[in-house]
What does this fold into?
Amino acid sequence: MTASGPPRVLGTSVGDVEVKDVGEGPAIVVMHGRGFGSGVDGYAWLRAELPNFRIISIARPGYGQTPLETARTFEEQGRLIDAVLLALDVDRAIALGVSNGGPAAIWAAALFPERVAGLVLWCAVATPVVPRHELSEVEAAMADDVLKVAYDQEMLFVAAAAELEEFNEHAALAIMSQTEVDRVKAEPLVIESLRDYLRSRLSAPPGLEGMRNDAIQNQLDGQKQPPNLAVPALIMHGDQDSTVPLAHAKFNAERGEDVELVILEGGSHGFFHGFRIETVVALREFANKVL
It folds into this structure.
């Protein structure tokens, strides 16, 4: 496939899923992280940076137009990746898991190494490292009324930041480290892609079901024996990530035999904005090696 166009709902062997399938060439399937307004349009910048690749973005269950019933557990979401690739006639691909999309990508590589040629993890969650809580506590923290208040508050900030005519260092520091702010403020294309990312969150469904499910599955999946990294893997993580600490990356890196761990000094949870060149170069080189 394909020229750029709107997302579509794809029927697969495991259920319906919203996808955005853009470009031609070696395939990279992207599983976004946990967050209000997350979905298939959050990585438009990646399509622009890798024009010779096919970028397949999946709205994980409970986000966008993907029903939660399609795949609740991270293992089921790993199977969903394979089902999407089959439905799109993709024989080999890289699974790219970002933040809470990481566990699904790991499961896909473990279950379907014949189709998932390589695994890339950006600031990815390792569920056994997630602090343990009682499910009743998690469910109370993720109740509809609590999430709706949090969503409204966060979207006020997102809306204001998205419409700033000039780069605002104070606003940027809410989502980036000082190191990243210093790097980004001289990069107009990265600044504009940040605005596009924020706007995509405003226009997407809130994703409350997905947020709640991720919190629950982080607890349940973390109680299982985690799968090993069965294929070559590239793990990238910022050393200033306060959302998913560096311990997650180190845990994941110990689970495979062919793993490259890249620690970005000064990198935050969204390091791929502040370290755009390093991120794209590493991904391109890894894809050229395994695909």
Remarks:
- The chain has one domain: 8-290.
- The chain has a mean pLDDT of 94.
- The beta strands are 8-12, 15-22, 27-31, 54-58, 93-98, 116-122, 233-238, 259-264.
